[in-house]
Input
Amino acid sequence: MQHSSSRQTDELAVSTTLQGGEYTISDIKGSSNNSYNYHAKTSDGTSVAIKEFFLRDMCRREGNNIQIPAKADAKIFNSLVKTFLRDATFLTSLDSEHLASVLDLFEENGTAYMVKSIPEGELLADLIVDPSRKFTPKQITSIANDLARSLVEVHGFGMLHRDITPSNIMITKDGSAVLLPDFGTFREDRSNASRVVSSVLQSAQHYAPFELTFDDARQGDGSDIYCVAAVVYHLITGEPPAASLDRVAAVAANDPDPYVPLEGSHKKFDDRFLKAMDMSMELFYDSRVHSATELMFIMSKDIDFDETRRMKRDVGKRSTPLTHQGIFIRVKNLLLRR
Output
């Protein structure tokens, strides 16, 4: 394995080889708080994407190897690496045209790597900020349905993505949306990793529901549904929605929720579709659309939305006030530490 001793940053250098030369890094494609992402060539010249599990808050690079300075962090990191590999193993079984394929998994340099296919297309994160690229209502509706279909497959395996943002969605040449596999790692063992989880999700706070910020909050399929709706909201309005922590803080202070509903404000869209997005971004989990199948049904069927919303709000009211009050207190404390 090759490495550069003069590298000043933590990502692996271009031309680094992995798996005994099977993969050679050709480009550094970016990073998040829990990974570095690369493009690479296989030994037969095939282009692939590689995700390296790297928690920036606790990891350091020495040569190509990852070091964990704090012993307590090392135990957490090793546990999360095992979880990453276990969950990624499930991804190899997923088969959907709207999910990028996982081709290989391995451990090296003291961490884990996931090798993925590279769908032909462009990242939504690049397209969404390009003023020359505008999505039509038909295209946005199609993207929402594609993402919902991908989640039907993911949730069917008992997994959550937990990081659905424009940076993890590829738009192919024919306009289809492909969800990139970057999920599962923190669904379990959350009690050991609350600090890490909070850090990982800060960069996606406009797309993530508030429960993903807390290690002991209820999470489920509805958490991913919120993320999908937030991405669609950005496509419709040109701006991401209000951050969920800011929404909770406002409600806790008896101020109006800063979320601006889509319903009734975008004439070119089917109002049924806009209502589905608003329902998916209800602030509290119990009031939200709970499954990808339900989301697809609401987007495509002529149903009584007022009745559906009333039922969901009644369910939300059945959540104990102490639960919401506890959330308010924790959000207030978190915002004070910003």
